[in-house]
Amino acid sequence: MTALDDRPGVSAAPAPPRTRRTTARLLTAALAAGLLVLVPVAAGTGAYPVPVGDVIGSLLHRTGLGGAELDRVAESVLWNVRFPRIVLALLVGASLGCAGALMQGVFGNPLAEPGVIGVSSGAAVGAVAAIAFGLNVLGTWTVSVLAFASGLVTVLVVYAMSRSGGRTEVVTLILTGIAVNAFAGALIGLFLFFADTAAVNQITFWQLGSLAQATWPKVLAVLPCAALGLGLAPLYARRLDLLALGERPARHLGVDVERLRIVLVLVIALLTAAAVSVAGVIGFVGLVVPHLLRMAAGPAHRFLIPGSALLGALVLLAADLAARTVAEPAELPLGVLTALLGSPFFFWLLRRTRRRQGGWA
Amino acid sequence: MRGLKLSRFAPSSRPVPPPPAAPGEVLAEAEGVGVHLGGRPVLDGVDVRVRAGELLALVGPNGAGKSTLLGALAADVPVAGGVVRVHGRPAPRWSAAELALRRAVLPQAASLSFPFAVEEVVRMGRAPWAGGDREGEDEAAVAEAMARTGVTGFAGRPFSALSGGERARVALARVLAQRAPLLLLDEPTAALDLRHQELVLRLCRERARAGDAVVVVLHDLALAAAYADRVAVLRAGRIAADGPPAEVFAEELLSEVYEQPVEVFPHPRTGALLVVPRRTP
């Protein structure tokens, strides 16, 4: 009981399951509606504004459902600049949100997040290595594959080092994260040292986290990873619920815990790598998003996993819209923006967990 | 629910539920079981049989190996020697899913990583039946288990906001909702007040009367004497005595096992067996 089992009322109100289920349905509808509104708005907003009506018209035209083609500039801005960026924001956001929800479930710990525990930096090591050394063995896939490999190794290391007696305690997890982040940072620094100036610029920019370099080929490079991860994750929702009881009780209820854990660690690495390989390290989305949803609709993973993907997509799309519009014509790095907003939340969460536990053991 | 259905593509086929057990059928047995934990022998040559229709209490001093024996019967703890059979088959040869239809386990301390509501926790007990023929029993099983353990009143509250005793009853409700023919309960009464201790053991006895095999680790010898059909006394990893309470609860044996003088005498009015430590005034 020294670990995270004493957290009275992490959900704000003691809502009975039925109300929670209704809340979940309403939230899903609201999130979907939010995306439907925000996508055309984001597509129309920027240095070259396009009215929302025209955006929808162009979309309908391209999908063969009517509408009308716009002039050449507008079409080009929309389809070569804005839409790849929006699709990438949605994919990255969904991957990060979903990876966060999965990771918290697997670790049984609401503070687990790919960025906090160092998995994002781990994936970044592979990506940076690919850029720094100009590796191109697998074409546009090189960065993704290397990010996946190093991300996977990192998840496994963190998992092995931060567990004892079938539980992951907060202190161990955070300290492991510090160590892993430090080591990954050192490796990235080392690669930077060996890289040429062009690669250094590319890496520095990429490390801040940004979607500014979005292109359709990049979308295609992450799509398989993200789609596979997002497709697999909901299949494990019920088993993740049972895992909240602890490993043994989950096994007593028929869950093959070892296999579940291995599969989910792979899925987490896949999703994190997908996000990191195109967008750099964008922290705290995976932490904040599942948390907000858990407060609103309870911890059942059947809603939490797809919900986190939806809200993650919405949050990242909004954040990217803000990043490219608040300081026009300059662009804020997206990772900096999410960290600015996410860190205080993380701090609050830490304080709260500490208070609930009566101090760290 | 949908997740489990889709994952039928996984190689493991749907586990087959056990046929109803005949009264007296051995649902779990340990034969010459030895268990080492951290290099130290915790159980040594333990033989015990758990029969359908019987409430078996495991008693003994701290560290005697009661919970370890329960863990071995639950197929949690790997055995170093001997064999544990569940429903006649060596425990390691069952899959987790098959075992989940055959035995339910109440752990000593109930914990939960996320603030699920009480009803959701109890419903988790139905997970082994998802997608099977008896999935239709879910609602009834959950409602009955909650009513029996008296937790219906706070069905909507988050588990993490409950007191220790309430948590223990919710955990028990989850185990009952699983409707497995073999129940393994590790100190189900530890966190409970007098009334709920009686309630829980009455429940156990009812389940035994209904044909299930129930194993309970108990510290309270008076409770064991009052409710168990059979008592196994453990001492230092071995069975010191095994039989009906009236036979096993002898003053010399208990005083020796617990290294504490014990008195056993009939209740002046009902004649029921009472076990109390001998205290000097």
Q: Can you describe what's shown?
A:
- Chain A has 361 residues and is mainly alpha-helical.
- Chain A has one domain: ABC transporter involved in vitamin B12 uptake, BtuC.
- Chain A contains 14 helices and two strands; from the N terminus they run H-H-H-H-H-E-E-H-H-H-H-H-H-H-H-H.
- In chain A, helix 1 (17-44) runs antiparallel to helix 3, helix 1 packs parallel to helix 13 and helix 9 packs across helix 13 (301-325).
- The longest helix of chain A is centred in the first third of the chain and has 36 residues, at 72-107.
- Chain A is globular, with a radius of gyration of 21 Å.
- The termini of chain A are close together.
- The model of chain A is unreliable at 1-14 (pLDDT under 50).
- Chain B is built from ten helices and twelve strands.
- In chain B, strand 1 (26-37) and strand 2 (40-51) form a beta hairpin.
- In chain B, helix 5 runs antiparallel to helix 6 (164-177).
- In chain B, the strands form three sheets. Chain B has a six-stranded mixed β-sheet, sandwiched between helices. In chain B, strands 2-1-4-5 form a four-stranded antiparallel β-sheet, covered by helices on one side. In chain B, strands 11-12 form a two-stranded antiparallel sheet.
- Chain B starts with a helix and ends with a strand.
- Chain B is α/β, with parallel strands linked by helices.
- Chain B has a domain at 25-111 and 180-277: P-loop containing nucleotide triphosphate hydrolases (Rossmann fold), CATH 3.40.50.300.
- Classes of the chains: A mainly alpha (361), B alpha/beta (281).
- Chain A binds chain B through residues 1, 3-11, 14-17, 19-20, 108-110, 234-239, 241-246, 248-249, 251-257, 294, 298-300, 302, and chain B through 1-4, 6-7, 12, 15, 74, 76, 95-101, 103-105, 107, 109-117, 119-121, 124-125, 127-128, 130, 155-158, 160-161, 178.
